[in-house]
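_Backbone structure tokens_
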Amino acid sequence: QVQLVESGGGLVQAGGSLRLSCAASGSRFVIDYMGWYRQAPGKQRELVATLTFGGNTNYADSVKGRFAISRDNAKNTVYLQMNSLKLEDTAVYYCYANVRSATAVYTSWGQGTQVTVSS
């Protein structure tokens, strides 16, 4: 089973920046795509950004132009650079990966990292 470990969350003032990291570990797996969801209090989880193995990206409209997703394939790590942060970006951010192993295809999730944007 692939494990995802996130880091980089924290408290930042509006207009500031943070970079989230998500490292995948395990054995004998291929990741087709990775990305980030977020969930704010009282709201549904929403897709923030996705990056395919081939390099295609997809962003939520609310973060386009401010967030950038990237990866280091050698490290099985995906990053989310968040700039011009707004109060409404406050949420728990979850990394996910679509994984193919020898026997199964499944989605793995990280434990979540809190991002709090203050005024």
Notes: The longest strand covers residues 30-39. The mean pLDDT is 94.
